[in-house]
Design brief:
324 residues, eight-stranded parallel barrel, alpha/beta, four-stranded antiparallel β-sheet
Length: 324
């Protein structure tokens, strides 16, 4: 009997150790976070690359001006179920680039609890793993910090994640308390220029930009590397020498299909004297190595822009992340 008790205690100790090691290993896994449209996730996910991802942020889940979510997302069940079978976490991403004036109203003290309740209802209804807050620029106001911290409490009570897409462009609007509420931050290191700046041609997302932004959030804002995820673009912008010519936007898949050989470059001379600037395979691999050194993962905007086969940027990220 005593021997049996000793064996039982020993087994319990082994099980607890395994659980702890498993938890530590899961925390140390290099994150590969991909944004993917809600519509695409509902339409067709048969060939979706779950194997190469740790998190998928479905964009964008937004309410009406009164704070209600009326869109039927039942078509996501197959995608979410399959992601969970593959140990991939799925989050709803709210807001997005551009302006969403109704958030200024919904984040006020008298409506915030109601809105957070509605948001949590969506999280639980569709069995997602958390919320990614992509409120940007002018949409960030004096109520942002309170919203983020209160949403974090609600999510943690359900063992859910809260993450955010942030950028240095509006760094002064992001308080330390707000940043501390997130499980991790997706640093948007892209769009240094674009269609809104035809007079500023050139790369919108360089390796040096990545170093600079990780330096800011890591060393100036004191965010630990375990909470930093480096964002990379799967798209590019084409500029003409004449600023009156509209800037051309193409995703990576379109670029390499249109211009053979461009997968291994970062810029390409295209028609009408324009130059296309983007991230090809070498830079994506270099950024992945940088992320392994100074962050905890790579974030992708967005998966729909990737190419297939040997030219896939996601495949390059996945392979590079697994190398010592």
């Amino acid at each position: 009997f005593k021997m049996r008790n000793k064996i039982t205690v020993l087994l319990i100790g082994v099980i607890i150790t395994v659980i702890r090691l498993s938890a530590q290993n899961s925390e140390n896994v290099f994150r590969i976070v991909g944004y993917y449209s809600i519509r695409s996730a509902m339409d067709d996910y048969g060939n979706f690359p779950f194997k190469k991802l740790t998190h998928v942020n479905l964009y964008f889940l937004n309410p009406d001006s009164l704070g209600y979510f009326t869109r039927d997302l039942s078509g996501l069940k197959g995608f979410i179920d399959k992601a969970h079978r593959k140990n991939v976490k799925v989050l709803f991403s709210i807001a997005g680039g551009g302006t969403h004036p109704y958030y200024h109203d919904l984040l006020k003290e008298d409506k915030r609890v109601f809105f957070i309740g509605n948001l949590m209802e969506q999280v639980l209804k569709y069995n997602v793993d958390g919320i990614d807050v992509d409120i940007e620029g002018s949409d960030i106001d004096e109520n942002y910090e309170a919203f983020v911290t209160e949403l974090a409490i609600a999510l943690k009570q359900q063992n859910k994640l809260i993450t955010s897409a942030v950028a240095v462009y509006y760094k002064d609007q992001l308080t330390d308390h707000a940043l501390a509420a997130y499980d991790f931050l997706n640093i948007m290191v892209y769009d240094r220029t674009g269609p809104w700046r035809p007079d500023k041609p050139g790369h919108h997302s360089t390796y040096d930009d990545a170093v600079e932004d990780l330096e800011y959030f890591g060393n100036i804002r004191n965010i630990p590397k375990e909470k930093l995820v480096l964002g990379v673009p799967f798209y590019g912008y084409g500029f003409a020498s004449d600023a009156s010519v509209p800037v051309k936007t193409m995703n990576y898949r379109q670029i390499i299909a249109s211009y053979p050989g461009s997968a291994t470059a970062d810029q390409w001379e295209i028609e009408n004297g324009m130059t296309m600037y983007y991230n090809g395979l070498p830079t994506i691999i270099s950024k992945t190595r940088l992320a392994k050194e100074r962050a905890s993962g790579i974030m992708i905007w967005q998966l729909g822009g990737d190419a297939k086969g040997s030219n896939s940027l996601l495949k390059a990220i996945w392979k590079s992340s697994r190398k010592n």
